[in-house]
Amino acid sequence: MARWCARQGAATIRVWDSREAPPQAAALATDVPAATLFSGALGAGQLGDARLVLKSPGLAPTDARIAPLLDAARAQGLAVMGELDLFAHALADLKAARGYAPKVLAITGTNGKTTTTSLTAMLVERAGLRVGLAGNIGPTMLDTLAAALALEPAPEAAAAEQTEAEHETPEDVVGQYAEPAGDTDGAAIDAPGVHGEPADDTADGSEPGEEGAPLVLAPPPPKDPVFAHLPPVWVLELSSFQLDGVRGFEPSAATVLNISQDHLDWHGDMAAYAAAKARIFGEQGLMVINRDEPLVEAMVPAPQLVKGGRGKPAKAVGRAVLRFGLDAPQRPGDFGLVTEGGMAWLVRAMPADETIKRKKGEAEELIIQRLMPADALRIRGRHNASNALAALALATAIGCPLAPMLHGLREYRGEPHRVEPIGIVGGIEAVDDSKGTNVGATVAAIKGLGEDRVSSKLVVILGGDGKGQDFAPLAAPVQRHVRAVALIGRDAEAIAAALAGTGVPMQRHDTLEAAVPWCFAQAQEGDAVLLSPACASLDMFRNYAHRAQVFADAVQQLAHERGELLS
């Protein structure tokens, strides 16, 4: 944000960091030499003559270290904003100044954000459009926009090129349609300027429309601006931190994939967490809704009464909504999953006949369009089928054709550490879902993989820093799909207590390296050993990627000890 403010000409930029040795201090000094970096207590005194306060999404507005300053800023009428606010304002300014009006697709949810965001971007690119991919997935929105603007021709040069293309004379237009030299079936156009004669609008004083009057053609409509580097489509992954308090963000289409307990220490409670997520929809854009998620479905506002014109009665008008889910779609345009002949298909509902007028309340007859078998997806689990449906819904919402996207969907391999197969040892598959750092993610992984396995089961590794979560939602999927559970980390005992009634064998392990061979010993051929801890990693590892590497190394070591190659 400091770089963006400097680019916009801010005279004074002050950056506060809670850390004694901020990791980006050197980059700030290089990129924004005019910025002043400071730390310590914050209060009204630090506002000075500030005109704008920008808050990093990593800091909760209730954080005692920054709350006094934020309160003082609001009391003085200063705007308190974040990166998403700045990005929305930047797009509005670019539209007014240069006619830049891209489509914006936005994705949030407790789980599946990164997979769905990267998949949506890939599908839009397969449809032939350049994409700006940014947000929580990285890089930042403002850095990505600034990089594109730096490469884009200056407005004056672009405008000159555009003006030259737009300001064709009537003679230019007629000349485009003049018959070629030689024999033709039709008569040549007889108009000034076609064959080299000088155009003279007053040659004989005739009025337009009279016989022999000069041909007067209106110039063609102005063409839409063409941008070489600014993308026509933005695909944004947004966290609840980035969305909290945002105003003025209006995407073309947006989705909340799911809502489950996470970041409650930041938001305070589930209601505030869900409310932050719901801000992604703005006031006007298409809402892409997961109909399998009651908390998401509840975000759709009630229809509003709109006055009728010329004596007509008021009518209820609702937001534009497109739905997806893991069952058969019930409305035209919605996406879903159906099973026919034992095979699950990704499908879309289409109206059987758009010309038939229906009576009020009469159900519309649908045709279910089969798109591709769910088994053709390379990303594993039903939850990833849901992510794929969300991506298709978002991309089709801005007019992307299905055919090239379905080809791309078959090739997408997913993101690292998100239900990622890493190999097979003794007929047992190892699956890395180290990014499953909350209960909702692990429930989705267990259900998604478990429902794809008819006669086999999972052995799951759970545990770490649970961040105060309720582990009770794990019980039902564990009881249904899991053969045994290995427990590690700080909250192993809390998880064991939540699973006590499942009847599933559990074993506590001091290290992940010790848990892996035990899991393979419990598993049967055709089963999978799943690392999906439902917890953060920092009690035992540097981060979730480090945890994943330890898991992969332990699986590789087990294969070596058995004289096998990890396949």
From TrEMBL:
Listed GO MF terms: ATP binding; tetrahydrofolylpolyglutamate synthase activity; UDP-N-acetylmuramoylalanine-D-glutamate ligase activity
EC id: 6.3.2.9
Reactions catalysed according to its record: UDP-N-acetyl-alpha-D-muramoyl-L-alanine + D-glutamate + ATP = UDP-N-acetyl-alpha-D-muramoyl-L-alanyl-D-glutamate + ADP + phosphate + H(+)
Domain Mur ligase C-terminal, first and last residues per copy: 417-535
Taxonomy, superkingdom: Bacteria
Keyword Transport: no
UniProt keyword list: ATP-binding, Cell cycle, Cell division, Cell shape, Cell wall biogenesis/degradation, Cytoplasm, Ligase, Nucleotide-binding, Peptidoglycan synthesis
Domain Mur ligase central: 107-145, 233-298
Pathway info: Cell wall biogenesis; peptidoglycan biosynthesis
Protein name per its UniProtKB record: UDP-N-acetylmuramoylalanine--D-glutamate ligase
